[in-house]
Amino acid sequence: MSILAPLVAALADGSVEVVDLTSPLGPDTVILELPAPFANTKALSTSPVSNFDDAGPAWAWNDLSLGEHAGTHLDAPTHWITGRDGVSVDRIDPARLVGPVIVIDKTAEVAADADLALTPADFEAWIAEHGELPDGCWVLFRTGWAARSGSKESFLNADDNGPHTPGITPEGAKWLADNPRVVGYGVETVGIDSGQAGGFEPPFPAHHFLLGADTYGLTSLRNLESLPLTGATIVVAPLPIVNGTGSPTRVLALVER
Prior knowledge:
Layout: H1 5-13, E1 16-20, E2 45-53, E3 56-65, E4 73-75, E5 98-105, H2 107-112, E6 117-118, H3 120-130, E7 137-142, H4 152-156, E8 158-159, E9 162-163, E10 167-168, H5 170-177, E11 182-187, H6 205-212, E12 216-218, E13 230-238, E14 246-256
Parallel strand pairs: 5-7, 6-10, 7-11, 11-12
Antiparallel strand pairs: 1-14, 2-3, 4-12, 4-14, 5-13, 8-9, 13-14
Helix pairs in contact: 3-5, 5-6
C-alpha cells in the first residue's frame, strides 16, 4: 500500500485536520510600516482585466499589485544583508517547506508584556518538557497577537518609542540559527523581529541570524491556538518568484485529531 494512502484516508475522515495558518490578504491587510527615510512596501491592490463584460464576456480576472512581504509571507535569505548571497524564494528546496512543527506558547506572558522576547532558555525549557527538536522543524511562536489583526493600531501597537510587539532576543535568534534541526521560524506579528528590535545588538536579530543561516521566516500567522505544542506538520507554499526576497504564502498545518 502507498504510504500516502493512509494520510489521504485520514484527511477524508477528519482524523487529520487541515488548519489554515494564513491571514486573508486584501487591501486592508496590515503590513509593516518603516519610519522615514526608509521606503515601504505596497499593500495589495487589484484592478480588473475583465468582469463578464465586453473585455471578457465569459471570464473575470484581475491584475494584482503588492509587495513580496505583504500579509502572511515568507522571508527568504536574500531579504537580509547577512543572507544576500543565499537562496531567493524560487530556489528554496521544496522538501524544506514541509516539516514538523513545534509551538512555543507565550500567550499569557505576552498579554502582560507586549515586548516579551524569546531567549535560549525558552527553547531549552521546551526541549526539557517535550524532547529534542525534530529534524527539519519549523518553530512557531504563539502569542495571541493574531487576535489584534482586525485593527491596524492594535496590531502594530506603536507609540512615541516605536512599535511594541513580541519577538526574540539576539541570543534566542542565534540559538535557533545555530540549530541544524530548525528550518524556519514563524510568528503572528507583522515581522519576525520584535517591535523594539531596532535597538538590539545586532539590530533585528531574527533577520540577521536566521536569514544569514539559510533559516526562513514566516509572519502574520493565525490560528496557532489550534495547534498542539508538538506533533503537527506544516506545509509552506510561497510563490516561486524568480530572484524574490520573499513571497505572500499560504501556510497550512496538518493536525491529528
